[in-house]
Design a protein that fits this description.
This protein is mainly beta. A hairpin with a 4-residue loop joins strand 10 and strand 11. The protein is globular.
């Protein structure tokens, strides 16, 4: 009788906990055509490893989220990830997200994660105060160096007499690579244009992002080291998007996302611009990857 009461009590408690959470997914993505995988050979589709399945299952706390005594804890989110290439019979990683809010202080997010295959534990700490301050620290538990990187974002409002409305300064440092970084970002009052100066050791760039209209955004980028220009163009469609990246010295990369009710198709196309004796139409056509996302 006592065991039955314990089981019933546990089920009641579990049902009360699950009522506070909403589940999203699972969502799986399969690659039907890939230059390195199953393209051109339909028999390989019978092998699940050639489809390179990846997926995730997410859950999030509802509103009101948690017991009344947890005043500062505003939301809990979690995600279970699966990657067949890393681990075929079990999840590859588990991630969590806990958000705390305190009036007058701002928000604090704690995002722990565990990689099952690598047996490594990580954690991301993010402190935010409105739109003016955001600090992100990435930690790896069990390593020699606990702190992997830290980056801050500080927003400053400018006087109305200037053409720019806001300036964002983002200093950071990667302790694993021992590389500092510094980014300046200026936003116009129309919020249709912004300029970004990204200062790093060998990858410093200047980018101008401009919204032509509600659907088209262009963002040419200049590499300060060699003055190379890369062109980016994002187009929003009624049922998806098209992202185009043109590197005149390398290739044209296009990603077309077509959303549907229960998932979507993602097609990646890469057209090399470096023509050589070994480059042929067949080789160019092989740089196509088609993925299907299934949402349940």
């Amino acid at each position: 009788m006592m065991k039955l009461a314990i089981v019933l009590g546990f089920l009641i408690w579990l049902n009360a906990c699950m009522a506070r959470f909403s589940v999203s997914g699972p969502v799986f993505t399969l690659t039907f055509k890939d230059a390195e995988g199953n393209s051109g050979d339909n028999t390989k589709l019978l092998d699940i490893s050639n489809l390179r399945p990846v997926g995730h299952l997410s859950f999030q706390s509802s509103d009101p989220t948690l017991p009344k005594w947890a005043h500062a804890l505003k939301s809990i989110r979690g995600k279970i990830l699966y990657n067949h290439a890393e681990c075929a019979t079990a999840p590859s990683a588990i991630e969590g997200d806990f958000r705390f809010t305190k009036d007058g202080l701002g928000d604090l997010q704690i995002q722990p994660g565990y990689n099952i295959r690598k047996k490594t534990t990580s954690c991301v700490l993010q402190a935010t105060k409105g739109n003016s301050i955001n600090i992100v620290a990435r930690l790896s538990l069990g390593r020699k160096h606990l702190l992997d990187s830290i980056k801050g974002n500080f927003m400053f409002n400018l006087p109305d007499t200037l053409s720019l409305s806001e300036v964002k300064v983002s200093p950071g440092i990667n302790f694993l690579r021992n590389t500092p970084s510094l980014t300046f970002e200026g936003i116009t009052r129309s919020r249709r244009t912004k300029a970004v100066l990204n200062l790093q050791n060998d990858d410093s760039t200047v980018t101008v992002v401009h919204a032509l209209d509600e659907r088209n955004i262009i963002s040419p980028q200049i590499m300060l080291k060699n003055a190379k220009i890369v062109y980016n163009w994002n187009v929003m469609l009624d049922s998806g998007s098209v992202r185009t990246r043109v590197d005149p010295t390398e290739a044209i990369d296009i990603t077309w996302t077509d959303r549907s009710m229960n998932g979507g198709w993602v097609t990646d196309i890469s057209v090399p611009l470096k023509m050589s004796k070994v480059t042929s139409l067949k080789a160019m056509a092989s740089n196509i990857r088609v993925r299907r996302q299934f949402s349940f």
